[in-house]
Amino acid sequence: MAAMFNNTLYKKQKNAAGFTILELLMVVAILSTIAYVTFPLLENNTDQVRFDDTRNRLETIRRAIIGDSSRTVNGRPEIRGYVADTGSLPQNIQALMEKDYCTDPQYRDSGSCTGTWVTQGGVCVDDFTATDPTACGSSWTDKYTYVPEVGLWVGWNGPYLKSSTVVPPANPAGKKYPAYADGWGNVKNLSPGAVATDSGWRRSLGSGGTSAGPESGA
Q1: Is-above-0.85 flag for pTM?
Q2: 9 C-beta neighbours (distance < 10 Å), count
Q3: How many domains does the chain have?
Q4: DSSP readout, 158-215?
Q5: 43 near 50, Cβ under 8 Å?
Q6: How high is the pLDDT of residue 161?
């Protein structure tokens, strides 16, 4: 009886044994094949998500410049955006994020700026036709101001884009600066003296108007 019990126990233990090496190799091979087939699909899906994000960001830039015509106030299109506030188009992406900036944005003040220091939003309150402080006099201001002559608020009233912070390359004078990346998180690398006020986005003017998008290799 005892011998029969031991024999039965032995068979159960034998049947409960783990996978053989051959079986494990087959499982590994099957999983590798599945991973090989599905990885390109996942990669393509990730690229599509980033592409869609970049397209949405491009639309955000457009709205920052000219506003959203689909929004209405009292049945009329809502007038807002950089153009509505300043009466002009922005020179670059940086102009939508910072009122005053250096054309090499890693330099954060006019004293250290190696390019051109840009100040936006100047307006003459008493004489709207005056375009500079000399012609205006004491009523010149670079703040967002109500101008009675035209019955409008005028001046830079941003930021019009929500920026991210970029760390400049090794440069003792360089500091973190705001930038607006694409869906891949790309921002054009800066070298000392480089102009990168478009955060790697490409702008071009042609017979058909303006085209914009992420700069190749940015």
Answers
A1: no
A2: 10
A3: 1
A4: ---S--EEE--SS-TT---EEE---TT---PPP-TT---TTTTEEEEEETTEEEEEEP
A5: no
A6: 92
Per-run averaged pLDDT (10 residues), the chain, 218 residues: 50 58 76 71 72 90 86 75 88 91 87 88 80 79 83 88 76 77 74 62 59 48
DSSP class of residue 149 equals T
For residue 88, the model assigns a pLDDT of: 85
Residue 108 lies in a domain: yes
- Identity of the amino acid at 9: L
**Is residue 13 assigned to a domain?**
no
Cα radius of gyration rounded to whole Å, the chain = 31
**Single-letter amino acid code for the residue at 175:** K
- Residue at 208 is within a domain: no
* Residues whose CB falls within 8 Å of the CB of residue 197, separated by 6 or more in sequence, listed in order: 91, 92, 93, 94, 95, 101, 103, 105
Give residue 191's domain range: 56-120+156-201
Q: How far apart are CA 159 and CA 216, in angstroms?
A: 26
Q: How far is CA 42 from CA 29, 35, 45, 53, in A?
A: 20, 10, 5, 17
Omega before 159 cis (within 30°)? Answer: yes
Please choose, from the candidates 103, 95, 139, the residue with its C-alpha nearest in 3D space to the C-alpha of residue 121. Answer: 95
The verdict on residue 96 lying in a domain is: yes
